[in-house]
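<goal> How does this chain fold?
<body> The protein record starts here
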Amino acid sequence: MSTPYTGPELIAPRPPPTARAGALGWLRTRLFATPLHAILTILTAWILLLAVPVLIDYFFLKPDFAASTAAGCRENGGYCWALVREKHRLILFGLYPYDEQWRPLLASVILVGIVIGSCIRRFWHPLLALAWLAALAAVAVLMWGGVLGLTYVEDSRWGGLPLTLILATFGIGMAFPFGVLLALGRRSNMPAIKAVCVVYIELIRGVPLISLLFMSSVMLPLFLPEGVSIDKLLRAQIALILFTAAYVAEVVRGGLQSIPRGQYEGADSLGLSYWQRMRKVILPQALKVVIPPLVSTFISLFKDTSLVVIIGIFDLMQASRAAVLDPGWQGFSIDSYLFIAAIYFVFCFSMSRYSVTLERRFDQAQQR
């Protein structure tokens, strides 16, 4: 026998939800949501309270910004800003002729400017390729000279930040398309092409970059015909490109494997050719997926340019080392390395933040 209906049951009142708005809500949800989060927050705050005052004291309170000699830096005990003021041109431009250092400075500004312009979406236009050609031509004219009344400067005297930017820019620009082709070749249905790409990728990824730099500097000239030589800087650039392309290929291959099979079948149903299918359907989706690891690879390339010092190229690292070889400034190696560390950090952090911005932009476009 069923129980007669007696009306709705009364529900006991519940406490109001925890506040999630405002500063208090942000602290509760982001920093103290769980006991573990609270412990980590307190531990991090404790470390910052210990470290930040020491860093402020070392970089800004102890140093005497009016000091112009190494003796003044030793007396103060803080960061030697006098070293930066005295040796910054050597660190930034290396052995480039002193009176002509405005040329690598302008070349660096042009390179950074064209890269920043390429990162802005409103400039994504076919004319951007012409802008790149003009920028690279201007950089070559400024760095080498020999035309337009500029004194010729051989590339063995290039160094510092401009050389690092040139190696990184050409390395990224050439390694990316080469890596994409290697990734497509590794997933090809043609056994010969697939085998060549697999052997290349596994071989390059199986050896350190230093070994490739040594081979390009020492062994490559032995295999060239008599009377034929390749510039040391060009050999180092080729080694960086070949090394980075193998890692780019593996990153892009991961993105290609993440694309559902239906996307390939849909492109085939439209009658698209292989290259049309890859260019218009598959690659845009695959590259969007692998933006974080791809940018990480580019950041690694930018930092790996410092390894060219082992084959005698006067890059930013070697220039900072040369700055403290002066007997009057010996003992300030840490200060010199901190200066170039800040330079590396600015460029690497900028690439990282652009990666985050690019991800958010694509995510918003997909949600629409």
Remarks:
- The chain has one domain: 87-216+231-367.
- The two ends are 56 Å apart (CA to CA).
